Amino acid sequence: MTVEGPIDKAIIMDFLRAGYNITPGALSFIKNKEDPELFARILLNSFNSTKQKTTITREMLVNMDRAFSNLIKDIPALKTSGGQASPTVPSDGEPTPVNASPTTKPAIPAPRPKTATELPETVQAKPTVLIEKIDPALKQDVTSVAPATVEMVVASVPQAPVAADALAPSFTSKSTFIPLAKEHAPQVKVIEDCTAHLKNDGDFADFLHLFNDRFEKLKAIFKARSDIARIVDIGDIASMARKTEEMYIVGMVVEKKQTKSGNTMLEIDDKTGSINVILSARNVDHAVLANIIHDEVLCFKGFYKDGIFIANEFFWPDARRTRRPQLAEEDLSILLISDLHIGSDNHLADLWSKFKTWIRGEGTSEKAREMAGKVKYIAIAGDLVDGVGVYPTQEEHLVIKDVYKQFEKAAEMLRDLPDYIKFIYAPGSHEPVRRALPQPSVPKSYAKCLYDMGVVMVSDPAVVETHGVKTMLFHGESFIDLSIDIPEISHTTPELAMQKLMMSRHLAPSFGKKTELAPDKKDWLVINEIPDILHTGHVHCNGVKNYHGTWLVNSGCFQDQTDFMKSLGIVPSPGKPNIVSLKDFKLTTLNLTA
User: Fold this and answer.
1) Closest among 8, 124, 11, 14 to 583, alpha carbons compared
2) Closest by alpha carbon to 144, among 133, 155, 128?
């Protein structure tokens, strides 16, 4: 720890004499008080009486200070001999108890549970939308809330209130940026990555292996559910069924059409045979039926009659409604971005500069600095660079025409961010890897500079775990197909496309359309285990939703509208990184364009 002056030395020595170590973040918190030495002595008395551990962190002091504040509310104002109130609240607005009696000693907060199973529903999916205008030249910060963003989050998580005033304009000369994330070593574990396991012989039979693997994995999900009884193979139905016998079957959708009477008829198959399934319009809402697409695997409940299966009910593999996300013990965050398109003449360098200012804690409010200081991880879901030769006229729109130099520029930009941040990077549709899904990680031969920085290079898709919280990165190539197949999904609603992928438990359910699939023997696009966060990009539009305990996040982009996007009618929403707290699962959307 660097000792900057006599006050630092006095505070450090007080703690050392009392038998405690103190982190830089804790020292900074104390120095921001009106009377740092007095505040430190009060805290030391409390720690001594409660037998705290030997290392004092900023988080512990924040909790103690909050406890002091709550207790002060219940204590009548102390009067001086002149009839004036005693100065129990310093000028920075944070209450400090003076001569607190033993009966008002703060209790040390109990440790937060590691998982969300013990937390109420409103805590598990509590979003906060913060939108801050970041301008280092301003003397104060301007905070505002975008109504559209707030409405979107509330609609997705109706039980969770949105804190619209979480960033207060506060700018003091005392404040210093000592990030909490710097005090923690990175904990990144790659759970799923296909890079070293992509195998196929280039034969048509490889597609058969691929779809058999998909079917068996999704069927196993249905078999594990307690609300679904024994599943009968399609080939065994005719020989064992009676007219009144209700049963469950699982099949992959081969064809879908409407009957003259308005019902929906599906042709489905499994490895033993195929059958037509009738879904009555009286039993199933037409809007729900519109979400059924080719090649997804469904489960049907009903009975067999005259060669047709009459379904009373059907199920997607889906995520359990009662699922609770995993939470970390450390008060750290993961920040989600995608589609920087470095090298393109449409890359928005000014927005990136504002982002760099914010993440480095420069020229922003104390609340914003605290939030930025908790960011330990930045996950990039594809299209970090614009690439070369991706489409015919691309060279006309490149300011960096060499893909190697694009990666060098990307490394330079990432190095400008705090060195304690760990980067996780999956490719997209513009990286120098194969276009067909799944995509391996970007090879070291192209991006040695990123490998040398220690960037965690993963495939598309991939699952990584940070402090126990699982994040799935997927660029989102299948979104275009979903917007064509399902009326309610559009380019501007990526969160609805992600919800559909979660329902189907597959990242590219339909085959033979715009999304290219490689015939590998294993289907890496099945969502075997529900992640805590699903992070995507590709369509350049910000979208956020909490679905059955999982944050679905598309973080927009750092690129202006291109001619190609204009042709598709896509209006991007750039400069909106999303931050998820690993400890309390709160989500924050920053707006760098305000």
Assistant:
1) 124
2) 133
Evaluate whether residue 97 is within a structural domain.
Answer: yes
Distance CA 23, CA 478 (A): 47
Residue 31 and residue 88 in one domain:
yes
> Does one domain contain both 369 and 401?
yes
Confidence (pLDDT) at 563: 84
d(CA 97, CA 39): 9
Co-location of 91 and 23 in the same domain: yes
Instruction: Say if 131 falls within a structural domain.
Output: no
* pLDDT averaged per 10 residues in sequence order, the chain, 594 residues: 64 77 81 80 63 67 67 42 35 32 39 41 43 34 30 32 31 62 97 92 85 97 94 90 81 94 94 95 85 97 92 94 94 98 97 96 86 97 96 93 98 98 98 96 98 98 98 96 93 95 97 91 95 97 96 95 84 96 96 90
Length of the chain: 594
Give the closest residue to 27 by CA, choosing from 56, 65, 70: 56
What is the residue type of 181?
A
Same domain membership, residue 454 and residue 308: no
Nearest to 494 by CA among 482, 509, 506: 482
Of the residues 83, 104, 125, the one at which a domain ends = 104
Which of 268, 283, 315 finishes a domain?
A: 315
**Alpha-helical runs (H) found in 195-291:** 205-223, 237-240, 286-289
Instruction: Give pLDDT tens digits for 492-521.
Output: 999 999 999 999 999 999 998 899 999 998
Tally the domains of the chain.
3
The reply to whether 117 falls in a domain is: no
Please report the pLDDT score of residue 70 as a whole number. 54
* Judgement on whether residues 20 and 89 belong to the same structural domain of the protein: yes
Same domain flag for 254 and 383: no
Shared-domain flag, residues 403 and 464: yes
Angle between helices 24-31 and 36-50 (to 10 degrees): 130
pLDDT the model gives residue 35: 79
495-527: burial string, b at 16+ Cβ within 10 Å, e else: bbbbbbbbbbbbbbbbeebebebbbbbbbbbbb
Residues 275 and 256 grouped into a single domain = yes
| 448 contact partners, CB below 8 Å, separation of at least 6 | none
Please give the pLDDT value at position 373.
96
> Under 8 Å CB-to-CB from 583, ≥6 apart: which residues?
112, 327, 328, 329, 330, 331, 332
Burial of 373 by CB count in 10 Å (0-12 exposed, 13-18 middle, 19+ buried)?
Answer: buried
Model-level pTM? 0.75
Domain residue limits at 288: 225-315
Q: Report in angstroms the alpha-carbon separations of 119 from 89, 128, 326, 469.
A: 33, 18, 11, 16
Asked if 264 and 319 count as a contact pair (C-beta separation under 8 A), the reply is no
Q: Any idea what the CATH number is for the domain that residue 469 is in?
A: 3.60.21.50
